[in-house]
Amino acid sequence: MRFLESSRNSNVEMIRIVGMLFVILHHMISQGFSFVNTVEPSMNLVFLQVFNSIGNLGNKLFIIISGYYLCGSKFSVRKVISVWLELFIYSLGISLILYVFKIQIYGVTGNGFYFTRLLQKRDFRITELFFSVFPFLTGQNWFITAYIVFLFFVPFLNAMVNNLEKRELLLLNLLCIFLFNIVQLIPFSDVYVINNYSSFIQMFFAGAYLKRYSKDFSSDCRKKMLFVGIILPVLYYSLRFIVFSRQIFYADVNKYLYQIFFSAFLYDMIFVFSAFMIFAGILGLQERKNRFINLISSTVLGIYLLHDHNYFRRNIWFDFCHLQEHFYSPNFIAYMLFCSVLVFLIFFCIDLCRKILLEPGCSWISKKVEEIFVNRG
Question: How many helices (H) and strands (E) does the chain have?
Fold first, then answer.
């Protein structure tokens, strides 16, 4: 099996696996609960609020790794088709199962506080099956859709990076941090919020900088960067924990404390720095290659698509894990971590089967499409 022969740095691939666990944990929290307007204050609610943002760090790690590998690469039609086919297979496949076996899905009702929305079961609609046939055009998964679109811009971004000196590339990264992170903390600065692609562009330039100049950092400097990258989120979550342990609800939090501790723009900035520092530190470690780690890492995209299917994702947490029933349990956090690992392992096995059974055919299709594209070009 060709995917067992990966020659990539397993240290980097391990970060990809950890990032995926962070994303699963975030989706578990954001999709796995249905509360009435009043929730009894508890430490479990504090943990949910504290860890809800952890998926953002996982996304940042994914994108900076992609930027690192895509820097200097040529546009690949085969890669675009390969990612699209994987998205298509899982989007349509799961939707067909829902429709044929008449499995009810969860619909969201109500607005307001993040953990106050209600969920109710309903039948899977034929129109949703139609949307699943065109997952890319209908944005069934925002991250993968944005990633596929981003791939078309990579050659132009590479042309830009190739014409920049070290100092210029550093200044470009600092400009991205200023516009995409620091300015966002200023009230009424929504005009500077671009879109989901700003994160891809920013982390691409960060990954490009590390690919070209990471060797300029000393070994001691890289160790310090790795430490700082890990400790930053820990300190941030500790501060959030202190605030939440005193004031459970957003409504009780002073508006200035809210701006400091609960702003999505703040933790986004922290995670940008953290992802950069962690990745720079990992690149400084002695490179190692482990086929098993690389095999697991090769299924991360499939795991993402399986557990975050637009219509099935809440069924995982409500019907399989029954998170709602364990919310007030003293072992709830341990149970939540167990479920995240279990979901990862189950979907790893499913995606591994897809690789064995379907990837040869998908690779053939991608190759043929690329040949047609290249010949016409």
Answer: 16, 2
Local structure of 341: helix, strand or coil: helix
Asked if 150 and 207 count as a contact pair (C-beta separation under 8 A), the reply is no
pLDDT at 117 > cutoff 60: no
Residue 18 token pair? 């950890």
SS3 state of residue 42:
coil
Nearest partner of 120 among 321, 318, 320, judged by Cα:
318
Name the CA radius of gyration of the chain, rounded: 21
Query: Which amino acid, residue 124?
Result: F
Distance linking the first and last C-alpha atoms of the chain: 32
Share of the chain above pLDDT 70, in %: 82
Contact of 317 with 323, CB cutoff 8 Å:
yes
pLDDT score for 262: 67
Who's near 194: CB < 8 A, 6+ residues apart?
180
Nearest to 73 by CA among 9, 163, 158, 162: 158
Q: Identify the DSSP state of 3.
A: G
Taking phi first (over 0 means left), then psi (-120 to 50 degrees means alpha), and beta for anything else, what does residue 119 get? beta
Among all chains, which residue has been given the structure tokens 């516009």?
A: 179
Structure tokens given for 304: 């993402």
Q: What is the pLDDT of residue 247?
A: 56
Q: Which two tokens stand for residue 15?
A: 């970060």
pLDDT for 93 = 95
Collect all residues with Cβ–Cβ distance below 8 Å to 243 and sequence separation of at least 6.
253, 257, 261
Q: Please determine, for residue 1, whether its predicted confidence score (pLDDT) is greater than 60.
A: no
The pair of structure tokens assigned to 155 is 């050659």
| pLDDT tens digits, 158-215 | 999 999 999 999 999 999 999 888 887 776 666 666 667 888 999 999 999 999 998 8
User: Hey, what are 11's tokens?
Assistant: 């240290």
Cα three-residue angle 221-180-18, rounded to 5 degrees: 55
278 three-state secondary structure: helix
**CA-wise closest residue to 280 among 234, 237, 233, 228:** 228
Rounded (5°) CA angle 38-44-49:
75
Looking at residue 330, what DSSP letter applies?
Answer: T
Task: Report the distance separating Cα 136 and Cα 88, nearest Å.
Answer: 8
Among residues 170, 271, 264, 282, which one has the least CA distance to residue 225? 282
